[in-house]
Amino acid sequence: MTRRHTTIGAGLLAVVLAGGVGLAVQANASGERSANTPSQTRAIPGYQVVRLGNANVGNFERRTVYCPAGKKAIGGGAEARGNDSILNGSFPTDNNDGWIGVGHQPGAGSVGISVFAICADA
Fold first, then answer.
1. How many angstroms separate the CA atoms of 120 and 68, rounded?
2. What's the whole-number mean pLDDT along residues 42-55?
3. Is there a contact between 99 and 76 (Cβ–Cβ < 8 Å)?
């Protein structure tokens, strides 16, 4: 049996919760949508998702995906693949120009790790 563990970074959650993405709707007391309430979506300037596909690496070896030049990571995630694999970390690089994933697979010398970064204009 293969288990897959995925983590999505706090940056993505913060973007969604901040209302930067989505549809704003206001309802009146009866639950109906108010006629004078504007609905809009705001795009994130330079939004781009970059991925580093699954590859087997040594246990606890970091895999890093980088944003294109002029962009910073605003979120990201990683996945560990393999029997009983464990994702030990999913976090931005020190200068926020990419995302790091690290994991291990008990009883094996390697683990499959894939990583993605959600990037936006710096």
1. 9
2. 95
3. yes
Give the strand pairing for 48-58 and 110-121.
antiparallel
Q: In this structure, what are the phi and psi dihedrals at residue 44, rounded to the nearest 5 degrees? A: -90, 120
Give me the mean pLDDT over the 102-121 stretch: 98
**Residue 16 confidence (pLDDT):** 39
pTM of the entire predicted model = 0.68
What are the helix (H) ranges across 1-122?
10-17
Q: Tell me: pLDDT of 113 over 50.
A: yes
**Structure-token pair, residue 68:** 């294109």
Mean pLDDT over the full length of the chain = 81
State how far the alpha carbon of 100 is from the alpha carbons of 31, 46, 87, in Å. Answer: 44, 21, 11
Rounded Cα distance, 82 and 50, in Å: 23
CB 75 within 8 A of CB 15: yes
Backbone angles phi, psi at 84, to 5 degrees: 55, 25
